[in-house]
Design goal:
Layout: H1 8-13, H2 19-40, H3 48-57, E1 61-62, H4 63-70, H5 74-86, E2 90-94, E3 102-106, H6 108-112, H7 114-129, H8 134-149
Antiparallel strand pairs: 1-3, 2-3
Length: about 150
């Protein structure tokens, strides 16, 4: 007999000693894989769209602000912005008020990705909640807020 694939329920129960942490890990891994598939067709890697989403809301943010909004350290946000810059989606320039500050601006190519990226996130949202009731979605959001409040 062939080996059977584990079900999602089985996978969640394999880490019985740490069920919440395992569930969070499994959710993050699944969500990131789906995001990668959707964003890959746009030439983006997961996480890059978050920077673009912030810039679509407020273009010309400092690199430091972008990192703080995502809770990323300086080197991680710098690397992400460098990749977006190399892809022609953003450009960096020194602030006229403080030359130590690097401001990030969208290029026309970066602006043009907004509708497709928002559509990819809408698809990701539909995928993520397709088996949840409205009440379950609201409870999930409240529970995640409680867990992330532990960070403070």
């Amino acid at each position: 007999m062939g080996k059977t694939e584990p079900t999602p329920e089985h996978e969640l129960h394999t880490m019985g000693e740490f069920p919440v942490s395992w569930a969070v890990f499994a959710l993050a891994r699944t969500h990131r894989a789906k995001a990668a598939a959707l964003l890959g067709s746009l030439g983006l890697f997961p996480g890059q769209e978050l920077i673009l989403l912030q810039l679509w809301e407020s273009d010309g943010l400092s690199q430091k602000t972008l990192g703080a909004m995502q809770k990323l350290d300086h080197s991680t946000i710098a690397k992400s912005i460098k990749r977006l810059e190399e892809a022609g989606l953003v450009r960096r320039e020194r602030s006229s008020e403080d030359a130590r500050v690097s401001l990030v601006h969208l290029t026309d190519a970066g602006r043009s990705l907004e509708p497709a990226t928002r559509a990819a996130w809408a698809e990701l949202e539909r995928y993520s909640v397709r088996n949840l009731t409205a009440d379950e979605r609201h409870r999930f959001i409240r529970l995640v807020a409680k867990i992330t409040a532990n960070e403070r």
